[in-house]
Amino acid sequence: MGACQTGASFEPFDLVILGARVMDPESGHDDVAHIGVRNGRIAAVTRQTISARTVIDGRGLVAAPGFIDLHAHGQTLGDGDIQARDGVTTALELESGVFPIAPFYKRREGRSRIHFGASAGHRGARILLTTGIEAGHSLTEPETQVRIQMRVQDWAYAHLKTDELKKLRALLTEGFMAGGLGIGLAPEYIPGADREEVLQVFEEAAALKAPVFVHVRRTASALGDAPMEPIQEMLANAAATGAALHLCHINSKALGMIDPALRLINGARARGIDVSSEVYPYTAGSTLIGSALFDEGWRQRLGADYRDIEWPLTGERLTEESFTRYRREQPEGWAIIHNITDETVDRAIADPDVIIASDGAPFIRGSGHPRGAGTYARVLGRYVRERRLLSLMDGIRKMTLLPARRLETISPTMRRKGRLQPGADADIVLFDPARVIDRATFEKPTTPSDGISYVIVGGQVIVDEGQIVGSAFPGQGVRAHV
Ligand SMILES: [Zn+2]
């Protein structure tokens, strides 16, 4: 029995959830109650009897705000459905971003089950400026990706001159004014973006009051204290310009220096710098094998060897020969990099202010990294329930309230998300806290999570007893300034 229709003629709510353990990370509310939903919003959280045409039996389940993923490269309907079954109701592409902005939103209006959005991508703007190619959301369009990768030297290695930097800044402003959720910046993939260019991006962001979502530049080495240097560069830029900074996947960037990296971030925040960071709950990263990340010297920079690189299309670990061949022949293919320790991931997850974000890539031909399918259930099942590294409320807070707050200064709609209280958007996940667990593996990365019973977006049920409701498309674009 799923969300069932009662057929009563007049009901005060459109949908009610009865008897769930309602957890709201903003108010701290954690008690069994009924939830009434009307016109896409939460209208009541109460212990009094309520009714509606659609009734969900929430007994034994936790009701939490839907999870908000700030780092979701997978932006197709299929990627969103896999995420929805992991409890995600809003999936945003903020690290890479897109360029231009308007077509990205237009293409998804009315065709998305979960909420979507993207930042103005420095990468896309730079590709347009240096090659004339309109990359859009290049990561979900393999053909565009091939064209871009084949000309990788054009856009990734060129140093921009003064007048070009001016044009780049104008493009980023244009993207932000078109609704882009801040600015996405990933200098590790763009070795030509020197410190001057990156500082100018921060200056432009500060003038716009737009947050910058950053994948930091290359470290000289994965060993010793070298990984701290690129993190310090970005903190210095934030301090010097006043731009808000979000550091992506602190686990894969800080590596063995996770403790001092977290002290830098938390110390900067305590002294008034607007900085946040995020973690995915896995000890392997993933990226395109043709990207600049794998340029000469990558083994030293990543602290990994050929055998640490997995080619998910076949499941094989690479050798020098197969690595070179795939990089040349399939530069748009995803590689998995096993180079992070459990301890690093644990430290970031246990920090109460580090946001959970998946960094999930588009699943192309069912291949990819399991984080795009299992991040949220994995944190709830393995890190909260099994290992007790953090409380359930803290886990929920890191998946809902914290990511919503990160965006609410530029996108007021986010003030109604990440909360489960009257007035909030009815983006809700119901899960079984005793059962919730990820099932996606490196061999089968699209396997949906278990224990996510219901997912509601804007008051509409999109996951009913664990199954996608194919006819529901309530997902809305999340934009800046609205
Ligand atoms: Zn990244």
Q: Going by CATH, what is the homologous superfamily of the largest domain?
A: Metal-dependent hydrolases
Structural class designation: alpha/beta
* Helix content, binned percent: 25-40%
The mean pLDDT is: 94
**CATH class call of the largest domain:** Alpha Beta
Total helical segments: 16
Ligands in the structure? zinc ion
First and last CA, distance: 38 Å
CATH topology heading of the largest domain: TIM Barrel
| Outline type | globular
Topology, element by element:
Layout: E1 4-5, E2 13-23, E3 30-38, E4 41-46, E5 52-57, E6 62-65, E7 67-69, H1 77-84, E8 88-98, H2 102-108, E9 115-121, H3 122-131, H4 142-150, H5 152-156, H6 162-177, E10 183-185, H7 195-208, E11 212-214, H8 228-241, E12 245-247, H9 250-254, H10 258-270, E13 275-279, E14 284-288, H11 298-302, E15 309-311, E16 316-317, H12 320-329, E17 334-338, H13 342-350, E18 354-356, H14 371-386, H15 392-399, H16 401-407, E19 428-431, E20 452-457, E21 460-464, E22 467-468
Helix pairs in contact: 3-6, 6-7, 7-8, 8-10, 14-15
Zinc ion binds at residues 95, 186, 215, 248-249.
